[in-house]
């Protein structure tokens, strides 16, 4: 990667500042670079032995290898591919996802997860009110809209991926179900890291996060329920009375301000295409507090510049520590 020099940080684009800082850090991905559609991929002296992968094609006139999509060049041995920066969500079994009910058809809810294929939640994959264990009846099917009406935000888990790519979901755990009392922030799913815990609480902020692998991030005031489980669930599995109580808990002005600030931090990270997890969100909030930026201004150029400078400085310092 060639070095990037930024003469004036006050007029440089935030992304340019980030690349300038990262260029100074040692990396084992020196051959990785961002290309646009039609850019030639120069693989050096072994051009003829290169295998063409997804996102590449050969130019008929010259035989040169060019990118057919905009993204990052990746090379594994002789195979060269271009991975797009923004893609539809590709599910894996066990993923925690957050999405809205788009339609109710038959004995299933169809959810909008931003995935390539249809995602469905069967009536049999949801706990009945009160946690009753019995076979679903025609009466249960008629009351599906009362359980999860269209537009309801749900936290569910990917149970299986069908051969055609369709997703089967389930909400049989107490942690899954309908979400209430917060806001849904949509970010690119590629930025959300798969981790052991996708239900997080930001210490000192009084805010809970559900980091959906599909890019749906739920932000809400921290409210431990009667079972001691962190969440904001009003799903069928929680019982009607308990779900109603969770929905009825009003948020104070301070709590709403905290939720809005975290949501803005998420949008800033997504704008800069930076990885999103509890740590990166906490770091973005610390930068906002340090520069004294107001919540409505967390999408401004000044804040984005401060954020990328902090990220670049942190990565350079980490790389230097590893080199010692």
Automatic annotation (TrEMBL):
SUPFAM superfamilies: Eukaryotic type KH-domain (KH-domain type I), Nucleic acid-binding proteins. GO terms for biological process: CUT catabolic process; exonucleolytic trimming to generate mature 3'-end of 5.8S rRNA from tricistronic rRNA transcript (SSU-rRNA, 5.8S rRNA, LSU-rRNA); nuclear polyadenylation-dependent rRNA catabolic process; poly(A)-dependent snoRNA 3'-end processing; TRAMP-dependent tRNA surveillance pathway; U4 snRNA 3'-end processing. Transmembrane segments: none annotated. It holds the Pfam family KH_6. Its main location: nucleus. One of its GO terms (cellular component) is cytoplasmic exosome (RNase complex). It comes from the Eukaryota. This is Uncharacterized protein. It comes from Auxenochlorella protothecoides.
């Amino acid at each position: 990667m060639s070095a990037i020099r930024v003469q004036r940080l006050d007029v440089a684009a935030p992304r340019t500042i980030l690349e300038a800082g990262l260029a100074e850090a040692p990396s084992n991905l020196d051959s990785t670079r961002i290309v646009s559609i039609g850019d030639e991929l120069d693989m050096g002296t072994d051009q003829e032995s290169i295998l063409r992968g997804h996102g590449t094609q050969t130019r008929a006139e010259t035989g040169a290898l060019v990118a057919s999509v905009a993204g990052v060049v990746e090379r594994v041995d002789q195979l060269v591919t271009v991975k797009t920066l923004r893609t539809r969500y590709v599910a894996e079994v066990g993923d925690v996802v957050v999405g809205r009910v788009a339609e109710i058809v038959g004995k299933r809810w169809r959810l909008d997860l931003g995935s390539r294929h249809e995602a469905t939640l069967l009536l049999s994959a949801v706990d009945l009110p009160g946690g009753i264990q019995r076979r679903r009846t025609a009466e249960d099917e008629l009351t599906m809209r009362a359980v999860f009406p269209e537009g309801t935000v749900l936290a569910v888990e990917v149970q299986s991926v069908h051969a055609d790519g369709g997703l089967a979901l389930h909400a049989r755990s107490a942690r899954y179900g309908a979400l209430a009392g917060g806001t849904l922030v949509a970010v690119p799913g590629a930025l959300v890291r798969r981790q052991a815990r996708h239900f997080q609480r930001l210490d000192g902020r009084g805010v809970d996060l559900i980091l959906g692998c599909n890019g749906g991030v739920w932000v809400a005031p921290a409210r431990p329920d009667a079972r001691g489980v962190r969440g904001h669930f009003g799903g069928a599995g929680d019982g009607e009375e308990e779900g109603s109580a969770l929905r009825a808990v009003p948020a104070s002005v301070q709590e709403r301000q905290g939720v809005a600030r975290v949501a803005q931090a998420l949008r800033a990270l997504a704008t800069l295409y930076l990885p999103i997890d509890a740590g990166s969100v906490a770091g973005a909030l610390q930068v906002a507090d340090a520069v004294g930026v107001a919540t409505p201004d967390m999408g401004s150029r000044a804040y984005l510049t401060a954020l990328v400078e902090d990220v670049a400085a942190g990565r350079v310092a980490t790389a230097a520590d590893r080199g010692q």
